Amino acid sequence: MSTPITAGRVIRRLCTENHREGDHEVHRGFVGMADGYEFVSAVGGWHPGNPIKLLPDGGSWPYAFALADDAERSLIHYVEGDLVVCVYDTDAAYDAALAAYAAS
Questions:
Q1: Domain encompassing residue 59
Q2: Any idea what DSSP says for residue 3?
Q3: Count of domains in the chain?
Q4: Are 57 and 78 in contact (CB under 8 A)?
Q5: Which residues, at least 6 apart from 51, have a Cβ–Cβ distance to it below 8 Å?
Q6: In the structure, what pLDDT confidence band is assigned to residue 1 with cuts at 50, 70 and 90?
């Protein structure tokens, strides 16, 4: 059995910059893949039971979208190969970020 992909693994593998913003840590990186389909497939975003799940995209798929990792209170934002991974300190901060994403 393989180890599932988590937001932490994405950060360790693909992100090179990080800083703090209020109630969360921000990690930035780049995906050297052709498109969003390949990235979501690589992190297991379509597989039931995987920690990372694809969020509704609001019409910009496959160029810009987000994935969520509830266990690590993390949102992974993908925009044409650029990544921003936000790791929230508390459940309340994570829930607020999910609600803000859903409202956008």
A1: 7-103
A2: P
A3: 1
A4: no
A5: 4, 5, 6, 7, 69, 70, 71, 72
A6: very low
* Phi-psi group of 38: left, alpha or beta (phi > 0 → left; psi -120 to 50 → alpha; rest → beta): alpha
The better pLDDT of the pair 59, 97 is held by 97
CATH number, position 73: 3.30.310
Whole-angstrom Cα distance, residue 1 to residue 98? 30
Domain contains 78: yes
The reply to whether 45 falls in a domain is: yes
Q: Name the strands in the sheet holding 82-88, side by side, starting at the edge strand that comes first in the sequence.
A: 15-21, 24-30, 82-88, 74-79, 64-69, 52-54
Read off the pLDDT band of 4 (50, 70, 90): confident
| R_g of the chain computed on alpha carbons | 13
Residue 2 within any structural domain of the chain: no
Other CB atoms within a 10 A radius of the CB of residue 75 amount to: 22
Residue 70 is classified by DSSP as: G
